[in-house]
Amino acid sequence: MSRVTINTKKAKHVNKFGKLILSDGTVLNGMGFGYSTRVFGELVFNTGMVGYAETLTDPSYSGQILTLTYPLIGNYGVPDPSLKDHDGIPKFFESDRIQARGLVVHDLSMVASHWRMVMTLDEWLNKENIPGISGIDTRELTKKLRNSGVMMAALVVSSKEIDEEEIKKQLSSAQDYASETFMDVVSTKEDQVFGNEKQTVVVIDTGVKNAIIRNLRNIGYKVIKVPWNTSIEKILSYNPKGVVISNGPGDPQKCQDTIDTAKSLIEKNIPTLGICLGAQILGLAGNADTYKLKYGHRGQNKPCINLEDDHVYVTSQNHGYCINPDTLKDSDFDLWFTNADDKTVEGIIHKKQRCIAVQFHPEASPGPYDCKFVFEKLKTLMEEEKPAKK
Q: Between vectors from CA 368 to CA 363 and to CA 369, what angle results, nearest 5°?
C-alpha cells in the first residue's frame, strides 16, 4: 500500500499592517497578509464554507473585494495551478488567476496542511499581487452589508503604518463598481477549442468558469469558447448544436453586443443556455428587465424551487444583478425557478423557442452538484429534431 504524504507549510507573507475602509466611513483594522498594496472595489460577502481556490478564481468576482464569512480560512492551503485535465483545463481553479481584487477573512490559518497543497493562501495571494486582511469580524461586517447594501471599499496592506485619511480621499474618488466595464478584462481575446468531437457547443465568454466548459465536455460535445462580442454570423460558422452564454461580472445592460447576439439565437431557435450573467442577458434579449440586488446572492446553500415539479434544489450562487420578475409577464419567457428565500428569479424558460437560463450555477465549483441536470436539459434541447432557422 502506497503512503500519501501530507504537506504542511507555515504562512510567510503575514503580520503586516492592514486596513479595510468602507465608503460609509467605517474603518476596520486587521492583520495584512498576501501582497502589500491598496485596492478599491465593491465589498461583497460569500457564505460558503469551503472552496476558496475556486471562489477567488471565479471571474464573476472581478472588481470586488471578497469577504468570506466562514471563520477559518486557509487551513488546507492551495493546490497546484499547473495541474490540468486531458483538455488542458486547470483542475482546481475556475480561471487562470485570482479575479477578486482583495480578500477579507476572520481568521487566517497560519499553518496549512493537505496532500494536494503546494503553497499557503498568503503565498498565493502574494504571488498574484492580491492583498488580504484577517482579524476582521466578518459576521458584523456581513450584517452591515445586509442592512446597508454592498458598497465601495478600500483594502490596504503595508509593511508601514497606513495613512487613513489619504485612503479615504482616494476611495471617495474611486470609480464606482456599477460604472465599470469588465468584458475586456475577463473575456477571451481569441477563439479556443476544447476537444475534437463532431458536434459543437459554442460558449460565449462573458467571464466563463472552467467548470462550465468541463461539464459541457462531460455530456459529449466539443466546446469552442468565443469572445463576449462575437457576432451571430461567426457563431453560426461553427455550426453549433447549441450555445451557452456564461456567468460573469458587472451590469448585464453593459453587454449590448451579447444581448444582440442572444436575440438572434432566440429568433433562430438555436438551443441556448444562459448561466448567471448569461441568464440576465437572455432575459434582456427576451424583453424582460434587470436590476441590482441590495447585497446579492453569494454562497453554496441557496434554495431554489423548480416550478415544473415543485422540487427544491440547493444551489451555488454568485451574482449581484437579477431579472425583474414583474417584467416577465410581458416578456418572451416564463418563470422556471424561483428563490425560496426572497422569491427572486432563479430560472427562465422561453415560451416558444429552445432557450433556457438559470441564475444559479449548475456546475457548482464550489458547491453542491444537485443541479447538473441543467446541462442534460440543454442536451435534450440540442438533440431535438428541430432545425435552427438559417
A: 50
Q: Which of 13, 304, 363, 371 is catalytic?
A: 363
Closest CA to 149 of 247, 296, 16: 296
Q: Are 287 and 34 in contact (CB under 8 A)?
A: no
SS3 state at 163: coil
- CA distances 357 to 144, 166, 375, Å, are 32, 45, 11
Query: For this structure, is 161 an active site residue?
Result: no
Mean pLDDT of 127-145: 98
Any catalytic annotation for residue 94?
Answer: no
276 is catalytic: yes
Peptide bond into 366 cis (omega under 30): yes
Model confidence pLDDT, tens digit, residues 72-120: 999 999 999 999 999 999 999 999 999 999 999 999 999 999 999 999 9
How many angstroms separate the Cα of 295 from the Cα of each of 142, 181, 324?
Answer: 9, 20, 15
Fold of the domain built from segment(s) 9-175: Glucose Oxidase; domain 1 (3.50.30)
Each domain of the chain, given as residue ranges in start order, spans: 9-175, 183-383
C-alpha cell at 246: 456564461
Catalytic residue (one of 276, 304, 322, 355): 276
Flag whether the pTM goes above 0.90.
Answer: yes
Could you read off the pLDDT of 209-266 as tens digits, one per residue? Answer: 999 999 999 999 999 999 999 999 999 999 999 999 999 999 999 999 999 999 999 9
CATH homologous superfamily of domain 183-383?
A: Class I glutamine amidotransferase (GATase) domain (3.40.50.880)
